[in-house]
Amino acid sequence: MDILLIAGLWLDGSAWDDVAPELTALGHRPVPLTLPGQGDGTASATLDDQLAAVLAAVDAAPGKPLVVGHSAAASLAWLAADARPEKVAKAVLIGGFPAPDGRAYADYFATEDGVMPFPGWAPFEGADSADLDEEARHRFESTAVPVPEGVTKGVVHLTDERRFDVPVVLVCPEFTPAQAKEWIADGDSPELARATHLSYMDLDSGHWPMTTRPRELARALAEAADS
């Protein structure tokens, strides 16, 4: 199965370099995506541009692909399910929850000169970054790509209720499935609350398991694809 890999903010397709070989060894075809504005040098990119790139990859897949969205890109994976409900086999969301209709995609941190740079580690201290050593943090900082404001402040538009019938797997890295279920029950994720087929996978890691637990993450993605 084709497994489309969409990394979160500040990351390009190379974020999956340690995961992709493991997926290949497990019999799948990983397709890491470098999104417009996050690795291709297009500072004027918009959320629509990024979604178009994801949908192009979905349409190019020979069958129904597994669409994987990490962190903020959980919303991109869900937007793909909304735009191609008949084409997406399953959406896998790693450490992120899809934004509801009408919400900004990822307007989390301050922008400078039309982009949102990596804000440093202070907002991510604790469970998010506990398993990142100094070398991993330095590598992340040195390769982090500022995200265009047209992406972060782009408004999510969801139009097809058939998305709720697309199977969803929520991979829980820095939080537990029990916590995720509680948040959803409390109304924190109205989209996942309406998902017809929602399952959970626990992964003992921080927020960036592609860096700290690539083999375990690959096995989880392969299991999602095989099921």
TrEMBL record:
Hydrolase is among the record's keywords: yes
Keywords: Hydrolase
Gene3D superfamilies reported for this sequence: alpha/beta hydrolase
Pfam families: Abhydrolase_6 (PF12697)
GO terms, molecular function: hydrolase activity
Name the UniProt record assigns to this protein: Alpha/beta fold hydrolase
Stored SUPFAM superfamilies: alpha/beta-Hydrolases (SSF53474)
UniProt keyword Protein biosynthesis, yes or no: no
Domain of life: Bacteria
UniProt cross-references to InterPro entries, sorted A to Z: AB_hydrolase_1, AB_hydrolase_fold
The AB hydrolase-1 domain, residue ranges: 3-220
